[in-house]
Design brief:
single chain; 84 residues; mainly alpha; Non-ribosomal Peptide Synthetase Peptidyl Carrier Protein, Chain A
Length: 84
């Protein structure tokens, strides 16, 4: 359970780092929409993916990223990859 907590915390830190300043304090729940609620655009999403890959030692495919709409989608994707 603690590994899941740290994945969520790591992803929160990364999202907040790349969120536009006025949206960096948005509460991140599984339902939080990355584009509409947090302001993550395509260039920021690329930076987020690169940061996740670096910090967690993963490779994330483009088609996987395109299916991510919410913070929960991202958490689910990364948890599935870290458990494998």
């Amino acid at each position: 359970m603690c590994a899941q907590k740290s994945v969520v915390q790591t992803l929160e830190q990364i999202i907040r780092r790349f969120a536009p300043k006025h949206r960096g304090e948005t509460q991140l729940t599984r339902q939080t929409r990355l584009v509409e609620d947090v302001g993550i655009d395509s260039p920021r999403m690329i930076d987020i993916v690169l940061e996740i890959e670096d910090r967690l030692g993963l490779t994330i495919e483009d088609d996987e990223v395109q299916r991510v709409a919410t913070f929960g989608d991202l958490v689910t994707l990364i948890e599935a990859r870290t458990e494998a």
